[in-house]
Write a structure and sequence with these properties.
476 residues, 9-stranded mixed beta sheet, 26% strand, globular
Length: 476
């Protein structure tokens, strides 16, 4: 047994001991079964939309050490290529109220931190009749560590002054978006951008659909576009040490050069899905090509359909088994901020309190999921028994999101309202035999299974599938 084996074993024992202590205090409180909220005004066929965007950079960069998130641990941020931003969109229906969607150039926020932001907006929500605030992170890999585990262990990589800046900025843009609202029509359109994503891990299926919500104000002011596409914003790679929003920055700049609009961008099901242009050696050139390709796609959409002014929303908390001893150990060290509760059925006897959100805007169903779901979890196409790492077929996997929703056009936003790691199909999930969650496992085809090390565990896919099916039973 080498030092890695000893470390993996020790971490699991420590985490299990912690889980047993939590269980002795009693079972986790039951979570409420949230009922759907429907926002509709038969007297008014219009949406009202407002937008706000601000830069979101630390005031003390250069005075304090900041770590770059997404690749190597303890990698210093050495400079700034482009400033990170956060954008908020109020989407409402007259006097009936509405919702807020935030997209931010952040690697991720835990549900604990999202809850803090919402609590700071409690009075605003009462006044504005805001039914839900959703925070979607672009998960770019060239920004600041806002989760904690890209620092120098055993210390967190987060800087408190910057976290407070993020909380304050998001609060302010939510309020401003509401104050800036105006009436108009909302359109939905799609196109395909096959050159803009690819998958290194079998099976090589991806969803190359780019989706655009386009709000057109009656008063002729700026349109607001909400875009979604499934590709990791990790284009700059692990060698980069400059702050950047990665390809979402170049996407926005390319659209701005052609059209004066407001833009929000959110990622889809991005588990193991990288950006396109993989044969381009220059990382900055590749990143710019990626952004421009998606911008061209957004600008060429010509199949817009007008959405009826109706919104349904349901935000459901759920217990998420924390079977990854390494991540549980980091949470115990306060490297990350997560709420842990007892779970007698979990391997480590503990679970996270996480969240899933269902929305329906007009006729479009939308699912906001924590973490990074593999496209097979969302849309299907899992490996066959002959192709999979386990030798088992897709029949052992839980129903896909589109099957549960009975909607092949279901739109998925990832890394939303929580940061919980990868969600890998069970029939292709394997761990290192002696160093689970610590080292990358290899399958019978000698393929690496890195993603499992940053997953909550084998049961993650089933947990999300079960939570979504429960939501759909109440929405329908």
């Amino acid at each position: 047994m080498d030092i890695g084996d000893l470390a993996a074993s020790a971490v699991k024992k420590i985490a299990t001991r912690k889980g047993n202590k939590i269980c002795k205090k009693g079972p986790a409180p039951e979570l409420p079964k949230v009922q759907p909220t429907r926002i509709k005004n038969n007297k008014d066929s219009k949406f009202d939309v407002g937008f706000s965007m601000r830069e979101m950079m630390p005031d003390d960069f250069g005075d304090k050490k900041y770590y770059i998130a997404g690749h190597k641990m303890a990698q210093d941020m050495t400079g700034i290529h482009d400033n990170l931003t956060a954008s908020a969109m109020w989407l409402g229906v007259g006097e009936e109220g509405g919702i807020i969607i935030v997209t931010a150039d952040i690697i991720g926020l835990t549900n604990t931190e999202v809850t803090l932001i919402r609590e700071s907006l409690a009075d605003f929500c009462k006044t504005a009749k805001c039914k839900a605030i959703n925070i979607c992170c672009t998960h770019q890999h060239a920004g600041f560590d806002t989760v904690g585990y890209w620092g120098r262990l055993p210390f967190t990589g987060k800087v408190d002054t910057y976290m407070q800046k993020i909380f304050k900025t998001i609060k302010e843009i939510c309020i401003e978006a509401y104050e800036n609202r105006t009436t108009g029509d909302l359109y939905l359109g799609t196109t395909h951008v096959p050159e803009a994503n690819y998958k290194r891990r079998e099976p090589l299926n991806v969803n190359d659909k780019l989706t655009r919500f386009r709000f057109v104000p009656d008063n002729g002011t700026k349109e607001t576009w909400l875009l979604n596409f499934g590709a990791h914003p990790n284009t700059l790679g692990g060698g980069n040490t400059l702050c950047s929003a990665d390809y979402p920055y170049f996407l926005r700049q390319a659209i701005y050069a052609e059209k004066d609009v407001n833009i929000l961008f959110g990622i889809g099901a991005i588990g193991a899905v990288d950006p396109g242009f993989e044969n381009e050696d220059d990382r900055w050139v590749r990143t710019e090509k990626q952004g421009k390709a998606l911008a061209a796609g957004a600008l060429r959409i010509d199949n817009d359909e007008k959405m009826p002014a109706e919104i349904t929303v349901l935000q459901q908390p759920f217990h998420y088994h924390a079977d990854n001893g390494v991540l549980a150990f980091l949470a115990m060290l306060k490297v990350m901020s997560s709420k842990m509760v007892a779970s007698e059925t979990a391997e480590l006897k503990m679970a996270l309190v996480s969240e899933m959100t269902y929305m329906k805007i007009g006729a479009q169903q939308i699912l906001l999921v924590p973490g990074e779901a593999f496209p097979e979890i969302a849309y299907g196409g899992a490996a066959s028994a002959e192709e999979s790492a386990t030798g088992r077929g897709p029949e052992i996997n839980p129903p896909t999101f589109v099957e549960i929703a009975d909607d092949e056009n279901l739109l998925v936003f990832g890394v939303s309202n929580d940061f919980t790691g990868y969600v890998v199909p069970p029939n292709d999930f394997i761990l290192h035999k002696t160093q689970p969650y610590l080292s990358t496992g290899k399958d019978k085809f000698d393929r690496g299974h890195y993603h499992e090390t940053n997953s909550l565990g084998y049961s993650a896919a089933k947990t999300l599938s079960t939570a979504f099916a429960d939501i759909i039973s109440r929405v329908k």
